[in-house]
């Protein structure tokens, strides 16, 4: 992912990091998270991409938070990019969203449930932006080569894959760390989603649960097996977050975790 604009610390030998709040809730929260993350990642020489979804389309209940409005949220992401000189990534869910998101985002993220949607992948590829595709919870790592090929056959070789767990029963996910080298075999960067891998979907309340206490476990294991990058959602007050609060890492815990991960990375190089 070295050819992403504004991506710093690319010669450090570290893993790269995609991190931020699950959704754009407000300018204040995005700015606070970005400022903290830039400070930490510059200190540790970690290549960093800011993440926040400008819209949340995949929700269990009709009354779940979906966003503050597309244009308002994209404008906030643009301000983060300009003020902190960092690349931005955000989800896209339909062909109609691609153009507007690509005006701001340096990396377009394809959600796991949409990783087989050919029209969406082709439209994203044609923007020329870097494309990060989450492996579907229902997909084998071997099958993700075809998602990669859709991007490449559309004239874009700037693509990465993301592991985010596999459905286990009705309300849990498991991470098969064998999927990381399997997907790296496709000659693309592979990212480990340390927060969504710990989701507990399909809860009776209609609100997805999670196990954030295990984020460090998942992250350390991922670095140990040689993953190229990590994805971590973080928030100043996860319990008050409007989306996926049950999965996010508290912002105050980020630096200690990243410091440990850098040491693991150094030990295996």
Estimate what percentage of residues fall within beta strands.
Answer: 15-25%
How many structural domains does the protein architecture include?
1
CATH class: Alpha Beta
The name of the CATH superfamily reads Aldolase class I
Strand order of the largest sheet: 1-2-3-4-5-6-9-12
Low-confidence stretches: none
CATH architecture: Alpha-Beta Barrel
Radius of gyration: 17 Å
Order of helices and strands: EHEHEHEHEHEEEHEEEHEEH
Would you report the number of β strands?
13
Largest pleated sheet: 8 strands, parallel, barrel
Mean pLDDT across the residues is 93
SS-derived structural category: alpha/beta
The residue fraction in helices comes out at 25-40%
What topology does this entry show?
Layout: E1 16-20, H1 27-44, E2 48-51, H2 70-84, E3 88-91, H3 95-102, E4 107-110, H4 118-125, E5 130-134, H5 145-153, E6 159-163, E7 166-168, E8 172-174, H6 179-184, E9 190-193, E10 199-200, E11 209-210, H7 215-224, E12 229-235, E13 249-250, H8 254-268
Parallel strand pairs: 1-2, 1-12, 2-3, 3-4, 4-5, 5-6, 6-9, 9-12, 12-13
Antiparallel strand pairs: 7-8, 10-11
Helix pairs in contact: 1-2, 1-8, 3-4, 4-5, 7-8
Polypeptide structure, described:
- This protein is of the alpha/beta class and 269 residues long.
- The chain has one domain (16-240): Aldolase class I (TIM Barrel), CATH 3.20.20.70.
- Helix content is 33%, strand content 19%.
- The chain has eight helices and 13 strands.
- The protein has helices at 27-44, 70-84, 95-102, 118-125, 145-153, 179-184, 215-224, 254-268, and strands spanning 16-20, 48-51, 88-91, 107-110, 130-134, 159-163, 166-168, 172-174, 190-193, 199-200, 209-210, 229-235, 249-250.
- The strands form three sheets. It has an eight-stranded parallel barrel with strand order 1-2-3-4-5-6-9-12, surrounded by six helices. The chain has a two-stranded antiparallel ribbon with strand order 7-8.
- Strand 5, helix 5 and strand 6 (159-163) form a beta-alpha-beta unit.
- Helix 1 runs parallel beside helix 2 and helix 3 (95-102) runs parallel beside helix 4 (118-125).
- The longest helix has 18 residues, at 27-44.
- It is globular.
- 45% of the residues are buried.
- The mean pLDDT is 93.
